[in-house]
């Protein structure tokens, strides 16, 4: 959930009213937001960066830090927040965004070479903008918030904003070899090519994190104007030539992307929120983006779509009973203009503006009704149908067995669900490729590469961490393992298992065998003798994890449910254990 910081006095001036901290917190809560902290710039610098020198020069002006829902991109700056709150309070109607057609549209042409790296681009122009220092800072901060949020740290979308009066269209979006791109980066004085730029920003506090996005590519994306002046090298940095300032009147906005839908959302959000500062409010100048096949598409789209929702269903889902006209008013206060269908009194016609890309389903509209009504105002009621809750049977059995195994002298451990490939493979003398393991696509550490297929490695690691404790060490765990399963909806399934390990001067096979017998006794499962159809027994088996001739399958009703035996010395050595161990592991799901 992103957090934005807004100056309290500036916020109250825009809202047209002063609030106490508690009053504003209540307003935020009613609107579905949360006032996270009341602080100052000085306190923020000291707390977040520990920069006492910078904090000494910082302002003591009060700053409200507000938590914004991750999907509400329209609230990520002061302009959007103020508009949203004023509409919610009924002080203004949701603004309508219009296009202004220029004498000649700006054109951005996409070269086929961009398909190798960032194939999409969109653009727009804001005319006759008046920036103050605060609105300029808000404009820059919004871009940063969008980059971190919907743009996924510029991997999906990179935003470039330029002073249109310093450049000349038509513009071209190309992809060239790094050494062919030369320009002066933002706030620099020396010209760099693509290779030099990567070295120059390798240690930059903010920009170094974006370099890997394109660094290893044979071509880098670049945007030129008609005079071959570089506007930007997305997603890294803009050119210094076209940088915007407080004097900028006309802003050219371009977004390059690997995801066209996200690029459209980002462009709509920026132009809608900051068209408020145009001389003709809430107007945007469209641009033509020429695709690689020669076709031209106009951006931004600023599409307003209509959704129809049932009043009866909305009331039922939320648990209220309000007339259609009141629900329509609630939605209008949430920036979704709504009216009752004259032909069908049970239907609401809801207009979704270009600022509310988070509304993708009827349930999103129901949620906004609930927020406007007030969650605390919804009366608590019993379910319309009778149902008695009870504990999930497998969890109930797990809790009962935990208590009994602990009373048998074993200490419970709770280990990580993720482990390394070697933990369930090489260290257990098994081939990881032949195991039904679920692998993590992009593991952050070597310790968490796969989901465990057995509880045994976790217990052995726990033994190693506690090897200074006096012997015997008897540990157990009852938890899930995850096994790959092609016939499962998600490609994997969970299996609840009990695993116990005895570590002593001698392996103590009889200890884990005794625990198995005790568990079966508690489960009322008899030892199978003769021609009995039911019961459990042991069947000799060979497993490279266990000592040869000291391993057996745990059988239940003639099906294998686990293994029991003395661990192989090489397994103990792999886990850095020097004392013999015996172990038992079996699934408890058949006993539910």
How are the elements arranged and paired?
Blueprint: E1 3-7, H1 8-15, H2 21-30, E2 34-40, H3 41-48, H4 52-56, E3 62-67, H5 78-88, E4 98-99, E5 106-110, E6 120-126, H6 133-148, E7 157-163, E8 171-176, E9 182-183, E10 192-193, H7 194-200, E11 220-224, E12 230-233, E13 237-238, E14 251-257, H8 260-274, E15 283-290, E16 296-299, E17 305-310, H9 311-318, H10 324-333, E18 338-340, E19 347-352, H11 362-373, H12 393-407, E20 411-412, E21 418-419, H13 421-424, E22 438-439, E23 450-451, H14 456-465, E24 473-484, E25 492-503, H15 509-522, E26 536-540, E27 546-556, E28 559-567, H16 569-574, E29 581-587
Parallel strand pairs: 4-15, 5-8, 5-15, 20-24
Antiparallel strand pairs: 1-3, 2-3, 6-14, 6-15, 7-14, 8-11, 9-10, 11-12, 12-13, 15-16, 17-19, 18-19, 21-23, 22-23, 24-25, 25-29, 26-27, 27-28, 28-29
Helix pairs in contact: 9-11, 10-11
């Amino acid at each position: 959930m992103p957090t934005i910081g807004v100056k309290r006095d500036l916020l109250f001036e825009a809202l047209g009213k002063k609030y106490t901290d508690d009053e504003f917190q209540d307003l935020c809560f009613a609107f579905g937001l949360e006032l996270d902290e009341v602080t100052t710039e000085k306190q923020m610098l000291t707390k977040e960066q520990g920069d006492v020198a910078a904090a000494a020069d910082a302002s003591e002006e009060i700053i409200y830090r507000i938590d914004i829902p991750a999907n509400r991109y329209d609230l990520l700056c002061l302009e959007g927040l103020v508009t949203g709150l004023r509409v919610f309070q009924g002080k203004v109607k949701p603004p309508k965004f219009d296009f202004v057609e220029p004498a000649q549209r700006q054109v951005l042409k996409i070269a086929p070479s961009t398909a190798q790296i960032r194939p999409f681009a969109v653009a727009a122009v804001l005319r006759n903008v008046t920036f103050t220092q605060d609105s300029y800072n808000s404009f820059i901060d919004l871009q940063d918030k969008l980059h971190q949020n919907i743009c996924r740290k510029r991997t999906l979308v990179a935003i470039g904003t330029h002073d249109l009066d310093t450049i000349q269209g038509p513009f071209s979006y190309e992809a060239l070899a790094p050494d062919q791109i030369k320009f002066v980066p933002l706030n620099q004085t020396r010209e760099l090519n693509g290779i030099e730029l990567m070295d120059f920003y390798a240690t930059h506090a903010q920009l170094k994190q974006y370099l890997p996005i394109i660094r290893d590519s044979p071509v880098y994306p670049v945007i030129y104007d008609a005079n071959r002046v570089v506007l930007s090298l997305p997603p890294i940095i803009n050119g210094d030539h076209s940088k915007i300032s407080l004097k900028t009147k006309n802003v050219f906005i371009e977004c390059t992307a690997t995801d066209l839908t996200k690029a459209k959302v980002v462009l709509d959000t920026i132009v809608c929120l900051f068209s408020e500062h145009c001389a003709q409010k809430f107007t945007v100048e469209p641009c033509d983006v020429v695709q690689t096949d020669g076709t031209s598409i106009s951006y931004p789209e600023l599409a307003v779509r209509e959704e129809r929702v049932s009043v009866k269903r909305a009331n039922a889902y939320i648990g209220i009973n309000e007339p259609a006209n009141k629900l329509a008013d609630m939605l209008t206060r949430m920036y979704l203009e709504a009216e009752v269908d004259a032909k069908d009194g049970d239907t609401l016609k809801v207009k979704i503006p270009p600022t509310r890309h988070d509304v993708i389903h009827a349930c999103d509209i129901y949620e906004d009704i609930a927020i406007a009504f007030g969650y605390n105002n919804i009366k608590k009621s019993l379910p319309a149908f009778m149902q008695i809750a009870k504990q999930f049977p497998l969890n109930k059995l797990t809790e009962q067995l935990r208590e009994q195994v602990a009373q048998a002298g074993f200490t419970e451990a709770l280990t990580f669900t993720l482990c390394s490939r070697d933990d369930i493979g090489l260290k257990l003398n098994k081939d990881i490729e032949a195991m039904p393991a679920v692998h993590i696509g992009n593991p952050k550490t070597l310790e968490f590469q796969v989901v465990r297929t057995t509880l045994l490695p976790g217990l052995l690691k726990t033994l190693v961490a506690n090897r200074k404790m006096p012997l015997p060490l008897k540990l157990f765990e009852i938890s899930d393992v995850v096994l790959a399963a092609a016939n499962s909806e998600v490609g994997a399934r969970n299996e609840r298992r009990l695993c116990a390990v005895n570590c002593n001067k001698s392996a103590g096979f009889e200890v884990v065998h005794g625990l198995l017998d005790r568990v079966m006794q508690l489960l009322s499962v008899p030892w199978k003798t003769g021609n009995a159809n039911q019961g459990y027994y042991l069947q000799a088996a060979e497993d490279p994890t266990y000592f040869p001739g000291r391993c057996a399958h745990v059988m239940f009703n003639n099906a294998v449910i686990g293994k029991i035996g003395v661990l192989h010395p090489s397994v103990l050595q792999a886990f850095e254990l020097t004392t013999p161990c015996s172990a038992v592991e079996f699934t408890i799901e058949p006993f539910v």
